[in-house]
Write a structure and sequence with these properties.
heterodimer; A: OB fold (Dihydrolipoamide Acetyltransferase, E2P); five-stranded antiparallel β-sheet; B: about 375 residues; alpha/beta; Peroxisomal Thiolase, Chain A, domain 1; nine-stranded mixed β-sheet; two-stranded antiparallel ribbon; about 35% helix; about 20% strand; globular
């Protein structure tokens, strides 16, 4: 993607900002300005909590171009506690094997770079919820 | 709208790496189909190809193939629907003849994947702003679906193993198939893990191929071919683009609605179908299609494979000439191979793989992560 495309979606990628439908209260992620539930205009920003659970996941051993240095890595569908599913990598799972239903929380991480001299791309990943002492 | 029939088919053997160029592959498939129909001219050509602009740096495929086949001056357009492009070309050719715009149309599909790296190009059928930046690929989305399926329905780890085993059995006597050898359940389960829990032998191969069909109005069909096969239904339905946005990712809504729309258009019941060419790019996709089309309840599709009901003599034979797994999945050409195989089945020319008394056959093609699904039903 071009730099402008990354800029346009930085709020959702850096801090999980989506939308809430003013008509039917559906929580929308990623934002699309039209409610997928009721079809009405929905532009009110909504800050997602970043908490959710693993809905499904897979570990990639042969990574696509641009992701080789991260391989093997684990991609998951995470169900946010507000409802929507998002595709994201799991991180910090070296201590805990992922499983369906595992509670996770959002963190901001480097996702990759576009070549040696290209921009660094940051965005959300999810990690197991840390146990509090 | 006029009734439309298939009056000619042409296939090239699917190969790991063909000696022919993209242009030659497409041209040869067209020539074979036209020879089968006994024609040296068509009014229109509709071409399918997914990856040439990525792998060969070649766009404008339809005009390229038309020229290679010496069809100067004909209408030539490309139809695209990600991995379901072959079926999209069939649909456009069908509509062209049905409407009266063309009296003879050819649908051709060609793919030459051996000259480049396919996986990133295939992943472009996902959402480039959402799924791809997170490192997801078309394969990883299918791996997630398989994990969900095993987990939700308590399916054993080897529950889907018969899908590739049966596909390979059926490919053995298909001269156009890539893999003409049987594989055992043990070989599938001990094959390399590609993206857990998906194993290599559950994935269709990277390959080269081309196939084509000639369509004519049914009332003129016997002038070209003594054994025409009628297109009873053509349907295309789309789902929410991303799996993430679907109410239940394991319910393939597009496949479901496309199937039932096709049953209605063909004026048949699901029970009337004698064979079903599924889009088994991954075993889990074949399983979910059987459920979406009504052949099994949700969570029960894998049992059809376990109980051998997907073999030639079973309740619903699938992948009767090898399917995407063993005949091969040269993406843009795949839908055309499916039609050619159904035509062979319905005209009693499927050899050792003949489904007895086959009169109605269905094919389904899947674009993206079950985002666009086309269903076609054929009958004699």
């Amino acid at each position: 993607m071009e730099i402008t495309s990354h800029w346009r979606i930085k709020k959702q990628r850096y801090s999980l900002v989506g939308e809430e439908c003013p008509h039917c209260s559906a929580k929308i992620f990623p934002p699309r300005d039209i409610c997928p539930e009721c079809g009405d205009e929905a532009k009110d920003h909504y800050q997602f909590s970043g908490r959710g659970e693993v809905y499904s996941y897979t570990t990639l051993y042969n990574a696509p171009a641009g992701y080789e240095e991260q391989a093997p890595y684990t991609v998951a569908m995470v169900q946010l506690e507000e409802g929507p599913l998002v595709t994201a990598q799991l991180t910090d799972i070296d201590v805990k094997e992922p499983e369906v239903g595992m509670p996770v929380e959002m963190v901001t991480r480097k996702l990759g770079s576009e070549g040696d001299r290209g921009i660094l791309i940051y965005g959300y990943k999810f990690r197991p919820v840390l146990e509090t002492a | 709208m006029r009734s439309v029939s298939v009056v000619g088919i042409g296939q090239l053997p699917v190969e790991k790496a063909s000696n022919l160029s993209l242009r030659q592959l497409g041209g040869e498939a067209v020539r074979r189909a036209m020879e089968d129909a006994g024609v040296d001219r068509v009014d229109a050509l509709f071409a399918s190809n997914m990856l040439a602009d990525e792998i060969q740096g070649q766009k404008h495929i339809a005009a390229l193939i038309a020229e290679e086949a010496n069809l100067f001056g004909v209408e030539a357009l490309q139809a695209r629907a990600a991995m379901a492009g072959g079926a999209a070309a069939i649909r456009v050719a069908f509509l062209s003849v049905a409407s009266g715009e063309a009296d003879l149309a050819i649908a051709v599909g060609v793919e030459k994947m051996s000259e480049g790296v396919a996986t990133p190009a295939l992943s472009k059928a996902l959402d480039a702003a959402r799924e791809v930046p997170d490192g997801a690929t078309m394969i990883s989305k299918n791996a997630e679906l398989k994990r969900m399926y095993l987990d939700r329905y308590n399916v054993p780890e080897d529950g889907l193993v018969n899908f590739p085993v049966v596909a390979h059995d059926h490919a053995r006597s298909n001269p156009f198939a890539l893999y003409k050898k049987a594989i055992s359940p043990g070989e599938v389960q001990s094959s390399r893990v590609v993206h857990a829990p998906l194993r290599l032998f559950e994935c269709s191969p990277i390959c080269d191929g081309a196939a084509a069909v000639v369509l004519a109005p049914s009332e003129q069909a016997r002038a070209y071919n003594p054994n025409p096969v009628q297109i009873l239904a053509s349907s295309v339905v789309t789902d929410r683009f991303c799996i993430d946005d679907r109410e239940d990712p394991l319910q393939l809504e597009a496949a479901h609605h496309s199937s039932y729309d096709a049953y209605r258009k063909a004026n048949i019941n699901r029970e009337d179908i004698h064979l079903f060419e599924v889009h088994d790019a991954f075993s889990i996709m074949a399983c979910l299609q059987l459920e979406a089309a009504g052949f099994a309840e949700p969570g029960q599709g894998w049992l059809l494979a376990v109980e051998d009901e997907i073999r030639l003599q079973g309740q619903i034979p699938i992948t009767t000439m090898g399917g995407l797994k063993a005949r091969g999945h040269p993406i843009g050409a795949t839908g055309l191979y499916q039609v050619c195989e159904i035509v062979l089945q319905l005209t009693g020319r499927a050899g050792e793989n003949q489904v007895r008394n086959a009169e109605i056959g269905m094919m389904q093609s899947v674009g993206g992560a079950a985002t666009t699904v086309l269903t076609h039903i054929f009958g004699v």
